[in-house]
Amino acid sequence: MATSIESTVSARSKYEPVIGLEVHVQLLTVTKIFCSCSTRFGDPPNTNVCPVCLGLPGALPVLNRKAVEFAALAAMALNCEIRETSIFARKNYFYPDLPKGYQISQFDKPLAEHGSIEIATASGPKKIGITRVHLEEDAGKSLHEGFAGATDTTAIDLNRSGVPLIEIVSEPDIATPEEAYEYLTRLKEIILYTGVSDCNMEEGSLRADANVSVRPRGEKKFGTKTEVKNVNSFRFIREALEYEIERQVELIESGGKVTQETRLYNSVEGKTYSMRSKEQAHDYRYFPEPDLLPLVVDEKWRAQIRTTLPELPEARRKRMIADYGITAGDAYTLTLTRTLADQFESAAKSANSPKRVANLVQSELLGRLKAKGLEIEQSPISMKGIAEAADLLEAGVISSKMLKDLFDLCFERGKDFPGVYEEEGRPAQSRDTSSIEKFLDEVIAANPRQVEQYRAGKKTVAQFFVGQVMKLSKGQANPQLVNELVAKKLG
Ligand SMILES: [Zn+2]
Prior knowledge:
The protein is α+β, with helices and mostly antiparallel strands. The protein contains 17 helices and 16 strands. It has a 9-stranded mixed sheet with strand order 2-6-7-10-1-11-12-13-14. Strands 5-4-15 form a 3-stranded antiparallel sheet, with no helix packed on it. The longest helix is centred in the middle third of the chain and has 20 residues, at 234-253. 34% of the residues are buried. Zinc ion (ZN) is lined by residues 32, 35, 37, 49-50, 52-53, 162.
């Protein structure tokens, strides 16, 4: 058994995987790309349709300006060049949910090209090229469940037909399933920052297909690739790629040949299955869409769109590290979403120590969220609340023990920090020297042996006295003050 695992590992190390990703992202326009039907998700089937998106004869498409602007904005965020003139093309194929018998897409003159994004890898940052970003319309949806007669029929919902999509095609620069996962994570983060899509994978607003092949290390020529389709989470894509690489290596090592085909991933079994032989581009008989003029995005329009480009996550992290003196880890957590980063920055500006706000998020918030299975956006304690707590802690009004207790109460009651702090009667640790001295005198009188040890030079015993006083004060005393008084009284 050990031998077989070893031989698999050594076979695998002889080959290098080559991975490229195709990501479809639904744009958040109010209406469809070529008609004025609503793009709303979840409406009753076939209620958001018209002759254009039903593909009825004679109906003509009219391009949605907003879809172009969203697509161009996303492309700019991915460092692409926007082509001044791009061409819509018909991609011909038959599928029940494609009423026209073709999809309007872009082919040899896409909207944008030559982009890249940076990902983190074990050996440092790596640039992944983006070949192209093009605009196209979505198809409808075949339904196999959830309606009467679903056992022996398939129903078609054409609400999605004509919803605007961008397809983002990467260069085959991705070398491992881990890098694919990282690429998808960064890509989604960037798109979310631009606001052009909600990237909701459950609702199909982000779909990723992976092309993968293996070749002997050092070989320039690509091996035959397979495409893994319809995987509905980034984690499953990573698993599917791991399986597929292993499968291809084993196949080649045993004298077989990889067939170019489309495969489906079964996440329950952790395996991919052959679905159909992969079409070549010429199978689609692409030709320019005769019903649409060339799309011209001139310099002036590009400049206008560029003004709406927000600060992107990577740049924002760098700036936040410099502005607030926080760590890279803090910056990473705090920029997970644009909203969270906005909230942190507005809280950090009003807080006395932005760094302490960031620390509290890491040390006191994330663990509590994880224990409750909550995302940071669902936290009962807002960034403003954390800033207020950080200020109280910074000023020595509350101790870190008190802060922990108050945060626990916030999570128990599902309430923000300021409210809970009020409800608890604005607790404050005692800076009342006379009452602390009284407690300390009691402790000294009751523990002559420890006093002797301290005076004999065992200064660590001080912590014993501090602890006893904190206990007597029920955690209300300011520990720093207690420390000072212990040194004064015994010294
Ligand atoms: Zn329509």
